[in-house]
Amino acid sequence: MKKKSVLGLLLLSCVITSGMFYGTMFLMRQQAYLNSEQAHLKEDNKKDSDKSIDAIIEDEKAYADARNDNKNKTEEVDSSNKDEPEDKEDPKNSEENDEDDKTDSEETLGDNVAELPDLIGDSSQVDYMKYIPEMVIDSNIKKALDIKNPSLDINAKSAILIDVNTKRVLYYKDPVVPVFPASTAKLLTALVSLELCTQDEKVTVGDELDLVASDSTVANLRKGQVLTIRNLIEGMLLPSGNDAAYVLAAYVGKKSLGNKKAGIDESVPEFIRLMNKKAKGLGAVNSCFKTPDGYDALGQYTTAYDMGMIGIAAARNKTIVEVCKQSSSTNKFLDGTEVTWRNTNALIRKDSGLYYSYCIGLKTGTTTMAGKCLISLAKKDDKQVLSVVMKSDSSGRWNDSIKLLDYGLSK
Prior knowledge:
- By secondary structure, the protein is α+β, with helices and mostly antiparallel strands.
- The chain contains eleven helices and nine strands.
- A hairpin with a 3-residue loop joins strand 7 and strand 8.
- The chain starts with a helix and ends with a helix.
- One of its GO terms (molecular function) is serine-type D-Ala-D-Ala carboxypeptidase activity.
């Protein structure tokens, strides 16, 4: 081989070797760079991840703080209900002040009644007493009960007798212990309904019937029927129709909301709010109503004294007395349907064997938790008295009521 050819081959080999060396170094530097970048990316991702978790923790902490603040505010409001100032309201002026006075407790109570009632089907399975706060004996109650209480043999757990004209208490037995209203609550439902509606307003029966407990007393209303407010008042107070009470509640609730299309989940709670506002305005400071028909429900309670205040207002309502003094009533609906309802109050009916000639109302009530209840109105000459008998038995409520009314009318 020629000398020039050998030198050429050696030069080519050097070039190739150098290229391979520098190429290898370049690749190694690139890999190191990539490894470094990946390490940085991993670190950045970890930091971002840690930051997100911290943000979530901070959000949860903020949310928990907000919940605790709301809870504390609620507890403060609840405690204000229990410790209401004694001189807050004079029962003598409660009817006149009801339209203008709007107390904090009334607003709070309205806020608390934000859902449909939780009915109690089996009271033996429910610790319902834990839903009842300590009763308040304010200065108005103390003054009303500051009497020389006569000795009367009354079997009911709780009772009170009141002069309707003067609102003076004539007798009492445990008047401020918690009891359950049963259908005596319908007097309050009637008061609220008649306050916001005229008797000839037309009402269409709707889905509110689905809220009526299966074992309720009813006026046998059907969806789609069109009745007047007066029809519904009679169907609620005479045969004690729970269905009529819910139809009234749904209609009046919509009217109060200013929304004819409001569902029952809005209109019925709104009506219950109105019930409690009205009760407080009448001086019933130890009551919480959860249902328009008085059916047992969690958190619902009253006292004989409170039902006396509500009863006095009902006794002074011409329409309610006019309805309740009937032994029966025939109603004709707008679609031509005609029904006759019989009064559940045996003191009103001459065929009952318990007829009391001076009695002109008002309302019976019966549930498992309430027992047998009766609010009675009697009139003799210019004298009118109201008796409230709560948690009695089948015969006791009639006998206790007659005994109280006799005593009251003789004073």
